[in-house]
Specification:
By secondary structure, this protein is of the alpha/beta class. It has 7 helices and 10 strands. The chain is globular.
Length: about 230
């Protein structure tokens, strides 16, 4: 990242980014992360209460709908991103109940033990304390619940990569904490979550547009850390 690029906290960053943020994977890293997330998500979600924590513009809510979910809650810190998500559900299946609410990953506006499936795509790094996030995820999920969570791989931070975007002709970067696998392991133990599966997806060269400028090292290292967790009885 250029030293002149402003580094913003998530709320002001997504307020600027929301108007141009699509409800689908829109870069090679997100395509790699999404393939891994979808492979770890339950194949069918009928009859299950699904929460997307850090739902953004609604990307994984749409995937959950495609897998049969009819009761869904999307929560995000950013009001403008939630508005973007709401606008994308005009074509939701009849009978689907989708609620959107503003909230922090460490203080979700949900009752205890209210979710069978919790999804969280590329959002936990916006919170410095991973343990606080996973404690909250454990609070709102039922024993036996499935959680599928992704974040940018720590190797990216080591290589100096940043999550950046353009708005109004200016480039910005979003502040993002680095959570190592050891952090995940310790936080899961404390929260009563079991790690059932871990994947470290890499870029597919076919996803990289011709002439795109990117660090060629990105083809040789994982770009995301994706986990399937299980809520234990406590």
């Amino acid at each position: 990242m250029d030293a002149a690029t402003p580094l913003l906290d998530p709320a002001p960053a997504y307020a600027l980014w929301a108007s141009s943020y699509p409800a689908h994977a829109h870069n090679p890293v997100m395509h790699a992360e999404e393939r891994a997330m979808l492979a770890l998500m339950p194949a069918r979600l009928e009859g299950l209460d699904v929460v997307d924590a850090g739902c953004g513009s609604g990307r994984y809510l749409r995937h959950a709908l495609a897998r049969g979910a009819t009761t869904l809650v999307g929560i995000d810190l950013s009001g403008p991103m939630l508005a973007r998500a709401a606008a994308s559900f005009d074509d939701a299946p009849a009978g689907a109940r989708i609620a959107l609410a503003q909230g922090d990953l460490t203080a979700l506006p949900l009752p205890d033990a209210s979710a069978d499936v919790l999804l969280c795509g590329l959002a936990v790094g916006h919170v410095p304390r991973l343990d606080a996030v996973l404690e909250e995820f454990a609070r709102v999920t039922r024993p036996g619940a499935t959680l599928v969570v992704s974040d940018f791989h720590p190797v990216g931070a080591a290589l100096g990569w940043r999550r950046d975007f353009k708005a109004g002709g200016q480039r910005y970067a979003v502040r993002h904490a680095t959570h190592y696998y050891s952090d995940w392991h310790a936080a899961c133990v404390d929260a009563g979550l079991a790690i059932d599966a871990v994947t470290e997806p890499m870029l597919d060269p076919a996803d990289i547009p011709s002439g795109a400028r990117f660090d060629p090292v990105a083809l040789d290292v994982p770009v995301a850390l994706v986990m399937r967790l299980r809520r234990l009885a406590r």
